[in-house]
Specification:
- By secondary structure, the protein is of the alpha/beta class.
- It has one domain: Acetylglutamate kinase-like (Carbamate kinase).
- Helices cover about 40% and strands about 20% of the residues.
- The protein contains eight helices and nine strands.
Length: about 240
């Protein structure tokens, strides 16, 4: 039995790159989609907030010196490309998915409408939220916290390339150890940078736990949803 009935998965754009330097790695997205399909088949209602770093990284050099708001809107459009790619990959695995965007793009995707998104989830469809919050100066981490609160999810799952939160960077410090659980306050005091400050504060205030885990470990997503000891749990 799943430990959670409704969850929000935060996928970074960088996670879609696999070992590539930019773009979407077909093998990586295929593995992710298989894991997502398993979770949906178990009856869990799933929403996804997706980043755009894998695409925007390629144009970030050109954005140097650009107005910050303009650059952020470009990043939102990058998340739209990722959302459409993920929706297509899910449909190829017979998983129904809907993309809702915080920026209007009605010929391509639905606008963000909260009751409609909840209804999609209740019908067993995966809802993919694109374009962050629709506002510049806010990250897709903040969008994940916001949409998670709005959807009434039980937990935010932050998928990264690392299998949890460590005492220090495990790539630089071989003696770094992984936390099984940690409180929001401890993570703030130790400056562990789980999410950006706005997202983190929102989750803490809403008493919305965060589970940080590696999306690159096959089956990790299902183990998290089943309540098994995967990743690091951040709680009040």
């Amino acid at each position: 039995m799943p430990a959670y009935q409704r969850v929000l998965l935060k996928l970074s754009g960088e996670a879609l790159m696999g070992d590539d330097s930019y773009g979407i790695n077909p093998t990586t997205i295929d593995t992710m989609v298989k894991d997502i399909a398993e979770v949906v088949a178990s009856g869990v209602q799933l929403a996804i907030v997706i980043g755009g770093g894998n695409i925007f990284r390629g144009v970030a050099g050109g954005a140097a010196g650009m107005d910050r708001a303009t650059a952020d809107y470009m990043g939102m459009l990058a998340t739209m490309m990722n959302a459409l790619a993920l929706q297509d990959a899910l449909r190829q695995k017979n998983v129904e998915a809907r993309v809702q965007s915080a920026l209007r793009m009605d010929q391509v995707v639905e606008p963000y409408i909260r009751p409609k998104a909840i209804r999609h989830m209740e019908e067993g469809k995966v809802v993919i939220f694109a374009a962050g919050t629709g506002n510049p100066f806010f990250t897709t981490d903040t969008a994940a916290a916001l949409r998670g609160a709005e959807m009434g999810v039980e937990i935010v799952l932050k998928a990264t390339k690392v299998d949890g939160i460590y005492t220090s960077d495990p790539k630089k410090d071989p003696s770094a150890t992984r936390y099984e659980t940690i409180t929001f306050d401890e993570a703030i005091i130790k400056n562990l940078q789980v999410m950006d400050a706005t997202a983190f504060a929102l989750c803490r205030d809403r008493k919305l736990p965060i589970k940080v885990f590696s999306i690159l470990k096959q089956g990790a997503l299902k183990r998290v949803v089943m309540g098994e000891g995967e990743g690091t749990l951040v709680h009040v």
